[in-house]
Design brief:
Elements lengths: L7 E5 L21 H30 L9 E3 L1 H24 L2 H28 L11 E8 L6 E9 H20 L2 H18 E3 L2 H21 L2 H8 L5 E5 L2 H4 L5 E6 L1 H20 L5 H24 L6 H19 L2 H6 L23 H21 L5
Parallel strand pairs: 2-5
Antiparallel strand pairs: 1-7, 3-4, 6-7
C-alpha cells in the first residue's frame, strides 16, 4: 500500500525503507547541490528502469516455465478492481496501528517479515546470474520442499518448491545482505532488497489482458492521488514505516560518501504497477510474431517520460508528487496512440496473456465422450492429442 506512494523530495533516511519528506523549509540540513540532485534522481530513474526491463524479459520465460514454484500469478479484472480498495484498507489499517500501538514493536515485526521476504526475493533474482559463475563440475543436487494436506484421494499440495545446491548458495549470499540490512538498515542493502522485490513483482505478477491493466492502473491512479493530496495518511504511514518498499539515493553522496543521509526516494509501487503493464505489452508484441517490440519500447519510453515529468513537477511545486499521476496516462496513452496509428487496437484489447498456448503445452480442444474404465478414458484423450500432431507432420504446408 505504501509502496505506491509519491516520489518524495529529500528526507532524512533513518534506515527505514519508507519515508516522507519534510515540508519545504523545515529541514535544517543545507540544500543539495545541483550535481548531487542530478546524480540522485538520475540514479533513481536508472534503478527504476532496470527491474522493469529485465523483469519484463523474465516474465516471458516465466510464462513458459514448467516449474510449479515459478508459475506466474495472474491478475484478473476482478482482482484489479478490488486492488485499490484492499490497498486503501491496508494503508488505513497501518495508519491506525501506528496511532494506537508502539511504533517500535510494529516496525520490529515488519523488519523480520521483510527480512525473510527480502532474502527469498534476492535469491530468486540473482540465481540466473550466479549460475554462470559455477564450474561445470559443481556438485549440484536437486531438492524438493513439499507440504501436503489430507491423505489419499483428498490429499492437496500446499507448498511444492523445487531447488538445488546452487539455489542454496544464492540463499546464503542473500542472507548476508539480509543480516546487513537488519543490523544497519543501510541504504544500499535497502536498495538491493527493493530492486529484488521490484524485479520479482514484474516477473511473477501477470495481467491477463490490456483491459485489466487499464482497470488496475486507473484505480491506483485515483488511489495515489487521493491518499497523497487528500489526506495525511500516506505521509504519516510513510514516516513511520520501516521496510524496503522504496528505492533511495543520497543527494549528498559526493560530499559525505556512503555515510550520506539526505535522500531522494521512489516507492516500489511506482515501479511494479507500471512495470507489469509494460511486461504485458512485451508479451503482446511477441504474440504478434512480427519480430518487433514496438509496444514494449513505446511504453518503456513513456515510463521514462512520466518519471521525468514527476521529478520536474516536484521541483517546480516543492512538494512530493504521486508518481502514478503522471505514469499512468503516459504508460496507457502512448501505446494506445501507437495501436490507433497501426490499426491494432482490436488485437491489443483481445489479447489474452493467460490463454497463450505454449510450444510445450498440448491443447485439448474438446472433451471426448467415453464410457468404460478410467484407462479407456486416458487412451481416448491420448489419441485426441496425438492425432493432430500426425496430421501436421504429413501436411506439405507444414513442411
Amino acid at each position: 500500500a505504501v509502496g505506491a506512494a509519491a516520489m518524495e523530495e529529500p528526507a532524512a533516511h533513518n534506515g527505514s525503507a519508507a519515508g516522507a519528506s519534510p515540508a519545504a523549509g523545515t529541514s535544517t540540513r543545507p540544500p543539495a547541490t545541483p550535481e548531487g540532485m542530478a546524480l540522485a534522481y538520475g540514479s533513481l530513474v536508472l534503478m527504476a528502469l532496470l527491474p522493469i526491463f529485465f523483469g519484463a524479459l523474465r516474465s516471458v520465460s516465466c510464462a513458459k516455465s514448467k516449474n510449479s514454484s515459478e508459475m506466474p500469478e495472474t491478475i484478473t479484472s476482478r482482482d484489479a478492481a478490488r486492488f485499490p480498495i484492499v490497498a486503501s484498507c491496508t494503508l488505513l489499517g497501518l495508519y491506525l496501528f501506528f496511532k494506537i500501538f508502539s511504533q517500535e514493536y510494529i516496525n520490529l515485526l515488519l523488519s523480520m517479515y521483510f527480512f525473510v521476504l527480502g532474502i527469498l526475493a534476492l535469491s530468486h533474482t540473482i540465481s540466473p546470474m550466479m549460475n554462470r559463475f559455477f564450474p561445470a563440475n559443481f556438485p549440484n543436487k536437486q531438492y524438493q520442499l513439499l507440504f501436503t494436506q489430507g491423505s489419499g484421494e483428498s490429499k492437496e499440495e500446499i507448498v511444492n518448491y523445487e531447488f538445488d545446491t546452487k539455489d542454496l548458495v544464492c540463499l546464503a549470499l542473500s542472507s548476508v545482505v539480509g543480516v546487513w540490512y537488519l543490523l544497519r538498515k543501510h541504504w544500499i542493502a535497502n536498495n538491493l532488497f527493493g530492486l529484488a522485490f521490484s524485479l520479482n513483482g514484474v516477473e511473477l505478477l501477470h495481467l491477463n489482458n490490456v483491459s485489466t491493466g487499464c482497470i488496475l492502473l486507473g484505480g491506483l491512479f485515483i488511489y495515489d492521488v487521493f491518499w497523497v493530496f487528500g489526506t495525511n495518511v500516506m505521509v504519516t504511514v510513510a514516516k513511520s514505516f520501516e521496510a524496503p518498499i522504496k528505492l533511495v539515493f543520497p543527494q549528498d553522496l559526493l560530499e559525505k560518501g556512503l555515510d550520506a543521509d539526505n535522500f531522494a526516494m521512489l516507492g516500489l509501487g511506482d515501479i511494479v504497477i507500471p512495470g507489469i503493464f509494460i511486461a504485458l505489452l512485451l508479451r503482446f508484441d511477441i504474440s504478434l510474431k512480427k519480430n518487433t517490440h514496438t509496444y514494449f519500447y513505446t511504453s518503456f519510453v513513456a515510463y521514462i517520460f512520466g518519471l521525468g515529468l514527476t521529478i520536474f513537477i516536484m521541483h517546480i511545486f516543492k512538494h512530493a508528487q504521486p508518481a502514478l499521476l503522471y505514469l499512468v496516462p503516459a504508460c496507457i496513452g502512448f501505446p494506445l496512440l501507437v495501436a490507433l496509428a497501426k490499426g491494432e487496437v482490436t488485437e491489443m484489447f483481445s489479447y489474452e496473456s493467460s490463454a497463450e498456448i505454449l510450444p510445450h503445452t498440448p491443447r485439448l480442444t474438446h472433451f471426448p465422450t467415453v464410457s468404460g474404465s478410467p484407462a479407456s478414458l486416458a487412451d481416448s484423450m491420448q489419441q485426441k492429442l496425438s492425432c493432430p500432431r500426425r496430421r501436421r507432420q504429413q501436411s506439405p504446408s507444414a513442411m
